[in-house]
Amino acid sequence: MKNMKLGLVPALLAAFAPLSSARAQDKAATALPAETVKANTATKGSTDVAKSGFATGAMPSETDAREMTEASIAAGGLFSSGNARTVALTSAATFRLRRDEHQFSAAASANFARAGKAGEKVDTTVENFQGLLRYDHFFTDKLALFLQSSARRDRFQGLDMRLNVDPGFAYYVLDTKKQRLRAEVGYDLQHDVRRDANREISVPAGSPAGTTPVLVDKTQTLHNARLFFGYENKLYDQVSFVTGLEYLQNVSDLETYRLVFDVGLKTNISTKLAVATTYTMRYEAKPLPDVENADSIASVNLVYTLF
Length: 307
Known about the structure:
Layout: H1 2-30, E1 67-80, E2 84-99, E3 102-117, E4 123-138, E5 143-154, E6 159-175, E7 179-194, E8 200-201, E9 214-215, E10 219-236, E11 239-250, E12 257-268, E13 273-284, E14 294-305
Antiparallel strand pairs: 1-2, 1-14, 2-3, 3-4, 4-5, 5-6, 6-7, 7-10, 8-9, 10-11, 11-12, 12-13, 13-14
């Protein structure tokens, strides 16, 4: 009888083993961490989408599953009255569609500001409009070929229009849920249509009477080589750090080049709403007459993800 009881224990354990294993598997499955916030739930806060001929494409990730549709809108503003009157508005919209190796993205933004002292004329201090279209074809998870076109109209850079056409290759050094590092190299065709008000070169002091001011050409076309590095780090599920550096070098004049640097922090308030803060600096070695070499902008936007 004792031996029979001892023999029942292994038999019962063997009978319940599959059930215990199934329960363990179910528990392990439910314990897996949920998907983190999508990388592009918030934009990086920059209101520049036509960065001197370059605007970064969205990067594929493990959460993409090669099928992704995203769209978002962003807006911010500043208003003051009294001793100083100020109105500043910034807005942006982005769209990305990914289907297997094909990806299409588009973006547009507008920035406008007016300021002045009480009792004096209010002047426009910022006015630019930008847009871009881009197509990426992914040969592998790390290598992609892209073609991008961007346009910019900027009153204070002296541009009625700056059109850029940019083919190139992108290589993803890192592409994980937490970190993304990529490099892009390619060609940039830039065509500028300049504002008449910015074409005139002032006559130097001491010049003979009747000296006629010189006008620079209405249009200019440049052929450039382009190099870009971009890095994104998801510090926490709701917070991401983004930065990028672009260098464009004219192939016929080594003294003509441009730099674009941006850094941003995006924080998700919810799955749909986020706050994005970014600082962007653009440097141009040979700007138009009476135009500064460097422009910078710091922006804070509320970003709403449509889908």
